[in-house]
Specification:
This protein is α+β, with helices and mostly antiparallel strands and 427 residues long. The protein has 2 domains: 176 residues, no CATH class; 123 residues, no CATH class. 58% of the residues lie in helices and 14% in strands. Strands 1, 3, 4, 5, 6, 7, 8, 9, 10, 12 and 13 form an 11-stranded mixed beta sheet that branches. Strands 2-11 form a two-stranded antiparallel sheet. Strand 3 and strand 4 form a beta hairpin. 33% of the residues are buried.
Amino acid sequence: MFRFALKSINSKKTISILYVIALSISMTISMLSINISSQIQEGFFRVDQKYDVVVGNKGSSTQLLMSSIFFSEDPLGTLPYSVVDDIKDIDETMKVVPIALGDNYRGSKIVGTEPNLLEGYEFSKGQVFGEDFEVVVGSNVAKAYNLEIGSQIVSSHGAGDAISGHDHSDSPYKVVGILKSTNTSYDNAVFTDICNIWSAHSNHDEEAHNEEEHSDEEHHDHEEEHSHDDHDHEDGHEHSDEEEHTHPHNHSDGEVTAILVRSGNLGNANKIIKDFNVEDKDLQAINVTQTLRKLMGNVDISKQIALILSSLVVILAIIIVVIMTYMMQKTYDKDLEILHILGASQGKTIGYLGYQNSILIIASLLISLLGREIVLNLANKVSSSLGIVLAMNKVYSLEYIVLLAIIVFSILPLIFYILKNKRNKGE
């Protein structure tokens, strides 16, 4: 019966292919609409549990949230490190973590911070940074660029693509730790001591200043050039010695792009927000949960629209599947007639129909699972730009329920056909 079913499918390729396409599309869209929308919603609330207040420059609260929590947007600007001490003065028990953005490694944000930012995170290899120019890399960064403990990386100035940024080749970093996958923005980031960011930028500014001076000197006459050459030679030695003995700035002189705060209680959180959200300050303090809720309001609307559209597509696909199943029934009559001539029993006849339908459903299921994997990978690349990493192996129970419903709908016409056949024979 199985071979006969395969031959029968082969004899009606066009309708069989259309049936599989319609069924696989309905399965894929159903699973993806549930999976992606659910993961994005969950992703927005993964990191914020650690910090309830973010302090930064005045501007868009959403941009401050996305840049500081999800590392997905450019920071609003810089503020002095002294603000960290101002926050700590409110309550010394609060966890206050500064971050400084502005550099990247091949497009991945380099987060200048303090070791306590990574408290509670597990390492697959190595340990937290401790010495000068050491970094901890997220799991996706390590995987993408085959980084191991001891690997050296060169950062680029700017938050975007490394190609467009200025390479800090004079200040390479050494990988000392690799984080376990967290399915958060941390998977796509690189972490180092905030002093290293200050140092790298200080060197960059000095180089730019020296290049500018050198360019001006080229316009002087020969004697002046000679005089300057000697002077520059001396300065060069002085600068080299200075670089060897000068490391990262004093914290009081440094700048940060945002400050993450775990206040510990509502009173502390409200006091920070009240103290920093005043007109005479160029700073703002946002409540992470409230800002996320505003953001999620827009996400929810988009999710609802996506669910409505995907539902319509699924319903349409199911209708097409049902129609084509009924169309295939016209071919069943001929197949059943042949089986009857060959002396096949009613059980074998039903078995033939079951085999044929099962082959088409299994083929559709395999294609839909492959399509789901491909689209999830593409969606992950898009969502990563928002700082949300999709768990590729995560499956929701609702996906199974919808999948089962689609399969049932695809089988129903066959069941009706078998029952109708039985009734006609009974008559």
